[in-house]
Amino acid sequence: MFVKHLSVFAALATALGLSAFTAQAQAPHASGDEAAVKAVLRQYQQAVQKLDTTGTHRLFTADSEVFESGGVEGTYRHYAAHHLAPELREFSAFTFSDYQAKVRLDGPYAFATETYTYTIGLKKDPKTPIVRKGVATSVLRKNAAGQWQIVSTHTSARTPRPKKQS
């Protein structure tokens, strides 16, 4: 009986050892995937700051979903053509600051949360910038070619609250 339990224990220890080894072996890959996900988010952010959506559809799946401040915008291609690109044409500048991104990986999926402040300069009224605190949550999927693409993204923003005086 003791031998039987010992062999079960040995098998369990071996399996746990292999799991630990596998987890260690995947850790560098996971950090590479995290960096790749953040690179996709950064590429999209940079395009918005350049006021140019050219080529950004590659960052999204064909059947992506975009949600913005309580609205369902459709696929990214629809959103870019009918909402984002026309809006960017009205801006003289769009800058992000206080940017932070957190990414959680789960197999071929990544879940990202971004927080930031953005400032928009309008061509019609360059002296009155629009400043907002924003948050975005996105789901990304690694495609067959090993590239991360945004499947779903939801953004919202609000006017920053005044800082409390001490």
TrEMBL record:
Keywords associated with the record: Signal
DUF4440 domain sequence ranges: 37-150
Superkingdom, taxonomy of origin: Bacteria
Signal peptide location: 1-25
Pfam families per record: DUF4440
Keyword Signal tagged: yes
Name assigned to this protein: Nuclear transport factor 2 family protein
Organism: Hymenobacter busanensis
